[in-house]
Specification:
Blueprint (H helix, E strand, L loop, with lengths): L2 H11 L2 H4 L3 H14 L9 H9 L3 H19 L12 H13 L1 H10 L6 H14 L7 H29 L8 E4 L11 E4 L6 E6 L8 H14 L5 E7 L5 H10 L5 E7 L4 E6 L17 H5 L3
Parallel strand pairs: 3-4, 4-5
Antiparallel strand pairs: 1-2, 2-3, 5-6
Helix pairs in contact: 1-3, 3-4, 3-5, 5-6, 6-7, 6-8, 10-11
Length: about 300
Amino acid sequence: MEVHVVNEALATLKSAKRRRVPWYEVAKAVMLVEDASPLSPEGRPWIEVAEYLSGYDAPLLRRYIMAHRFIEDASSKSSRMLPAKKWSFSLLEILKRIHDVDSEKAVDIVYNNNDGLKQRELSAVLSELRRTSKGKSSSPIAEGKIAAREFCDLCLFVLKNGGMRELYNKPDSKEPTILRWRVPHRWVSPDLAIIHDNNKEIDAVDCYIGLTYNRQDAIRRRIRDVAFESAFFDRFWIIIPYDSGVGRLFSSFMSEIDLRNVGIIEINRNTRRIENVTPIINDIRGVNHTRKEWTDYEKSWLR
C-alpha cells in the first residue's frame, strides 16, 4: 500500500472525535492502516495508534470496524452497494445482530426499507427473531463457545493423526501422549497436554479461534497469558486456523518478548492437516525457572 494512503488515513484519525469525523470514515481509516502492516513504524498495534490519535476508545473503534465490515459483506451479496452514510452506527449494530441470527432477514431489511427504520423497530425485529429461532443459539457468546469447542476437537484429531510426528520428529522414541487438560491447577489451564514417554516433560497446547488480523489487541492479550503459562511447561504450542491469517502476527509479538519455548501450529480446517509450523526456538522450560515442579499428584490427573 502506498505511503501517502496511510498518511491520509492517519490524518483522518487525528482528533477525529473532536472534529466529529463520521464513524464510517474513522472505521475505514483504521482498516486501511491495519491492512498496510501488522504494526506501526514504532512497533505499536495500529489500534493503539488510532485510539491515541482519534480520541475514541479501542473497543468503540472495533465496533465501528465490525459495522463497516457488515456493510461490505451485505454489499458483496447484492449488485447494489450499500452506502455507509445511509445508516447510523447504532442501527447498523442492531442490523449486524439480526444478520447473526437470520442473514436473509438482515439483507432484506437493508435493501427493501427505503423509508428507513427506527432503532426501536429494529430492536423489536431482533427480539422476535431470537424468540422464534428454535434450537438455534442466538447468543454470540454461546456460539463462540461452541466454535471454540469444535476447533479444540479438530486440533486433538489432527495431532493424534500424524500431527505429533510432524512436531517432534523423533523416530527412535515412543510418540508422546496427548490428552485434554483436566488438572485442577490454580495458575494454568491449557486446552490440551502432551506427556512425553519419560513422564518428565509436559507440554501444553492452546487452541485459538476467532482471532483476526483486525483484533491485534486481543492477540496481544493472548500472548501475555501465554508468556505467563508457558513458564510452567517444557514447551507451549499455540494452534490457530491457517485461514485466519494471523500466524505472522503471533510470531511477531512472540519475538518481541522473546518467547523461546512457544511454537505456533496453523491447521487447515478443510483438509484437517497441519499447514505450517513456527518452531520452538529452544527446547527448554519457560523463562521462569523458579516455578515449582509438577507433583506426582498433579501428574496423576494426566495419566
